[in-house]
């Protein structure tokens, strides 16, 4: 809807006839939008940082693999034998590999009580289970 021109020669449109509109009651909308924008930007920066960390980690891993490949290709048989003997001499908690006892499952013996009732977590128990 067109309105007649104002005193200053400008045409006023519907709803904007008064130039001194108070927008203070709508300021909260702008503040929320700024807060939302800052949160989104922060999340984008964090994702970008994490992605760059992973890329750097992968590049470092590739460099390490290349260095190890070069190192291993230059080893002689004597050096390989020396490394194998050093690995055999490695101890676990002060015991040699030969002194470490095998796990019960490997022996075929069981340490569990076959007469013990089945374990049921308390969060899964019903009134029937308690009777």
Bin the strand percentage: 5-15%
Number of helices: 4
The tally of beta strands, per DSSP, is 4
Which structural class best describes the helix and strand composition? mainly alpha
Shape: flat
Please explain how this structure is put together.
- With 131 residues, this protein is mainly alpha-helical.
- The chain has 4 helices and 4 strands.
- The strands form 2 sheets. The protein has a two-stranded antiparallel sheet.
- Strand 1 (2-5) and strand 2 (11-13) form a beta hairpin.
- The longest helix has 47 residues, at 27-73.
Layout of helices and strands, plus pairs?
Layout: E1 2-5, E2 11-13, H1 27-73, H2 77-88, E3 91-92, E4 95-96, H3 104-107, H4 127-130
Antiparallel strand pairs: 1-2, 3-4
Task: Give a concise summary.
It is flat and about 100 Å long. The chain contains 4 helices and 4 strands; from the N terminus they run ββααββαα. It has helices at residues 27-73, 77-88, 104-107, 127-130, and strands at residues 2-5, 11-13, 91-92, 95-96.
């Amino acid at each position: 809807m067109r309105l007649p021109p104002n005193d200053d020669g400008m045409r006023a449109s519907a709803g904007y006839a008064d130039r001194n509109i108070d927008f203070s009651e709508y300021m909260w909308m702008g503040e929320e939008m700024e807060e939302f924008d800052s949160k989104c930007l922060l999340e984008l920066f964090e994702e970008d940082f994490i992605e760059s960390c992973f890329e750097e980690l992968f590049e470092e891993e590739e460099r390490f693999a290349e260095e190890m490949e070069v190192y291993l290709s230059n080893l002689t048989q004597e050096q390989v034998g020396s490394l194998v003997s050093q690995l055999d001499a490695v101890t676990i908690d002060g015991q040699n590999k030969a002194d470490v006892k095998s796990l019960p499952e490997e022996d075929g013996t069981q340490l569990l009580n076959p007469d013990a009732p089945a374990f049921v977590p308390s969060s899964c128990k019903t009134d029937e289970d308690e009777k």
